[in-house]
Amino acid sequence: MSAAGDVRHHRVILHLHQGASEQAIIRVAAELAQLLGLELHGVYLDDPALPELAAFPFVREFRLATGSWHALDRAQLVREQTMAADEARRLLDDTAAALGVARLFEVISGDPMNFIAASSQAGDIIVVSQPRLPAERLVHATAHLLEAVHGCAGSVMLVPQVPTRRRGPVAAVVCAESDPALLIASHIAIAAGEDLLLLVSGPPELARQAKQHARAAGVLPQRITVRAIADVTPDSVLDALGAGNERLVVLARGACGADDAAVSAYIVAARGVPVLVAEP
Amino acid sequence: MATLDPASPLPPERLYRPADIAALSFETTAELAPVGVLVDQPRAHAAIRFGTAMGVRGFNIFAIGANGARIQNSVRALLDDAARTRPKPPDWVYVNNFAVPYRPMAISLPPGRAPALDKAVHDLIDDVKVALPAVFESEDYQKRRSAIEQAIRGKNERGFNALRDKATAKGIAILRTPAGFALAPMKDGQVVPPADFNAWTAEQQQAVQTAIEELEKDLEETLRALPRFEREQRDAVRELDRETARGAIAQPMDECRTQFTDLPKVLEHIDAIQADILDNIPLFTTPQPPGEEAAAAALRLGGLFDRYEINVLVTNADGEPGAPVIEEVHPTLSNLVGRIEHLAVQGALVTNFRLIKAGSLHRANGGALMIDLRNLLTEPLSWAALKRALLRQEVVIEDAARFTGITTTVTLEPDPIPLDVKVVLFGDRMLYYTLAGLDPDIPQYFKVLADFDDDVDRSPASEAMIARLIGSIAAESGSKPLDRGGVGRVLEHAARLADDASKLTLLVESILDVVAEASYRAEQGGRAAVTRADVEQAIAQQRYRAARVEERGREMILRDIALIATSGSSVGQINGLSVLSLAGHSFGRPSRITARVRPGTGRIIDIEREVQLGGPLHSKGVLILSGFLAGRYAPDVPMSLYASLVFEQSYGGVDGDSASSAELYALLSALAEVPLRQDLAVTGSVDQHGTVQAIGGVNEKIEGYFDVCVARGLTGTQGVMIPASNVQHLMLRADVVEACAAGRFAIYPIGVIDQGIELLTGRAAGERGADGHYPDGSVNRLVEDRLALFAKVRQAFGRDASDPP
Question: ipTM of this complex > 0.85?
Answer without folding.
Answer: no
